[in-house]
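Practice problem 4.
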């Protein structure tokens, strides 16, 4: 549906581990934006994602319905 409207996208799952996440965030420089769906990121991830992304779009509307079983203390969602 997106491609028929001229929108190309790649989907990536947020990996575990600092280095794996940083490598993924470095790829963001090649895209017009990053759509972050149902996931709050910690402060370190937010810093690196902001550094490499041109635009960040957060989709929290569905995420507020679910309680994280292991919330991160330094999650960005705690400060919003």
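Answer key:
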């Amino acid at each position: 549906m997106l491609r028929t409207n001229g929108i190309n996208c790649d989907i990536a799952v947020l990996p575990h581990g600092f280095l794996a996440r940083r490598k993924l965030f470095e790829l963001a420089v090649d895209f017009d934006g990053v759509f972050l769906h149902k996931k709050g990121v910690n402060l370190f991830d937010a810093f690196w994602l902001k550094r490499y992304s041109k635009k960040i779009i957060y989709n929290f509307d569905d995420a507020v319905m679910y309680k994280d079983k292991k919330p991160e203390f330094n999650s960005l969602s705690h400060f919003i």
